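Weekly sync, protein design subgroup
Attendees: M.S., D.O., the rotation student, P.L. (late)

Item 1: inverse folding check
M.S. brought a backbone from last month's batch and wanted to see whether the design step gives back something sensible before we order anything. D.O. pointed out we never logged the input encoding, so this time it goes straight into the notes. C-alpha cells as presented (276 positions):
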C-alpha cells in the first residue's frame, strides 16, 4: 500500500490531503493525468506548461474555490486526492463519458460537483477556525482535508450508524448482513471500525434502544470474529444478568476474566454476582 502525502496551497489556506490506499482511477482519468502529471511536480504559482512535446491541455475555465489561475496539473493532482479520499472515480462529479462521448470537466451539471465545492469551502473554514480552537499556531495544527472525514467513502458514516440503519428495516439479520458486506469490502481500510469494538458499539446502541435480544445477536456474531474478546463476554453477561439469567452471566463473566485477567471491571462484576 502506497502512502502519498501531497500538500497544496489554495488561497490563503494550505490544505493537506493524505492519500491512503491508492485507488484505481478509470482509464480516462489515467490518460488525463499521465499527460498532466508527467510534467513538473505541482508548484505554487507555476505557470501553465505543456508536457514535453505533448499536447497542451487547456487551462481550467471554471475554478471558483481553487485559485482561478491554478495550473491544470495542480488541479488534477488535487482532484486525484479528492477522488481517493471519497473512494470514487472522476466521473462521480464530472461529465466524463469517455472516448466518443461528452467530456466536460468544467461543467457543473452533476450535483456531487457542486456539493464538493461547498465541501472545499467548509474544509477551508474549519482550517481557519481550528488553530484558535486548539490554541496552536496554524502551522502546528492538524490540517483538515477531505480524507479526515471521508476515509475512502462518499458519505462518511460510523459503523454503528450504518448497521443500526440497516437493522431498522430488516432486523439484526439485515444489520449483520450489512456488517459482513462492509467488512468484506473495506476491511483493512480506514472507512469503518472492524475491530473488536465495532460490533460492541452496535450492541451498546441496541441495548440503549431497549433491544437486548438484538444486542445479544450482535455480541454473539462478534465472538465469531473475535472469539477471545473478553469485553464481548462481559457485555453478554450484563444482558443475561439484566434478563435475570444469573447463572449464564456468571459463566460468561468467568470466561471474560479467564480471557483477560486484567479486565478488572469483569472481575468486580463477577464477585458482585457471586455475592463475594
Ligand atoms: C468529489 C467531486 C470531484 C471528483 C471525484 C473529481 N473532481 Fe474535479 N472538480 C471538482 C470540483 C468541485 C471542481 C471545481 C473546483 C473549483 O471550483 O475551484 C473540479 C474541477 C476540475 C477541473 C477543472 C475544470 C475547469 O475547467 O474548471 C479538472 C480538470 C478536474 N476537476 C479534473 C478531475 C479529474 C481528472 C478527476 C479524477 C482524478 C476529478 N476531477 C475528480 C470535483 C471533483
Ligand atoms: C468535517 C467533515 C468533512 C470534511 C472535512 C469533508 N466532508 Fe464531504 N461530507 C461529509 C459528510 C458527513 C457527508 C455526508 C452528508 C450526508 O449526506 O449525510 C459529506 C458528503 C460529501 C459529498 C456528497 C456525497 C454524496 O454522494 O451525496 C461530497 C461530494 C463531499 N462530501 C465531498 C467532499 C470533499 C471534496 C471534501 C474535501 C474538500 C470533503 N467532502 C470534506 C463530511 C466532510
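Designed sequence read out in the meeting:
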Amino acid at each position: 500500500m502506497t502512502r502519498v502525502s501531497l500538500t497544496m496551497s489554495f488561497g490563503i489556506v494550505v490544505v493537506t490531503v493524505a492519500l491512503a490506499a491508492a485507488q484505481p482511477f478509470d482509464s480516462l482519468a489515467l490518460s488525463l493525468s499521465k499527460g498532466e502529471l508527467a510534467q513538473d511536480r505541482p508548484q505554487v504559482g507555476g505557470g501553465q506548461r505543456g508536457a514535453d512535446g505533448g499536447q497542451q491541455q487547456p487551462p481550467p475555465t471554471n475554478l471558483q474555490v481553487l485559485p482561478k489561475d491554478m495550473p491544470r496539473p495542480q488541479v488534477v493532482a488535487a482532484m486525484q486526492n479528492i477522488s481517493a479520499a471519497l473512494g470514487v472515480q472522476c466521473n462521480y462529479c464530472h461529465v466524463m463519458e469517455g472516448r466518443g462521448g461528452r467530456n466536460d470537466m468544467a461543467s457543473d451539471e452533476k450535483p456531487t460537483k457542486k456539493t464538493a465545492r461547498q465541501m472545499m469551502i467548509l474544509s477551508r473554514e474549519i482550517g481557519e477556525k481550528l488553530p484558535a480552537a486548539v490554541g496552536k499556531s496554524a502551522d502546528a495544527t492538524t490540517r483538515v482535508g477531505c480524507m479526515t472525514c471521508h476515509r475512502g467513502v462518499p458519505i462518511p458514516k460510523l459503523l454503528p450508524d450504518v448497521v443500526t440503519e440497516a437493522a431498522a428495516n430488516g432486523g439484526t439479520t439485515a444489520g449483520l448482513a450489512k456488517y459482513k458486506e462492509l467488512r468484506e469490502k473495506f476491511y483493512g481500510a480506514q472507512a469503518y471500525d472492524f475491530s473488536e469494538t465495532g460490533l460492541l458499539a452496535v450492541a451498546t446502541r441496541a441495548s440503549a434502544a431497549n433491544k437486548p435480544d438484538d444486542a445479544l445477536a450482535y455480541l454473539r456474531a462478534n465472538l465469531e470474529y473475535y472469539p477471545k474478546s473478553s469485553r464481548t463476554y462481559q457485555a453478554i453477561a450484563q444482558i443475561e444478568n439484566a434478563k435475570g439469567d444469573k447463572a449464564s452471566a456468571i459463566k460468561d463473566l468467568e470466561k471474560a476474566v479467564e480471557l483477560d485477567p486484567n479486565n478488572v471491571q469483569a472481575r468486580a462484576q463477577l464477585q458482585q454476582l457471586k455475592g463475594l
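Discussion: DSSP finds ten helices and four strands in the chain. The first helix runs from residue 27 to 37.
Action: P.L. to compare against the previous round before Friday.
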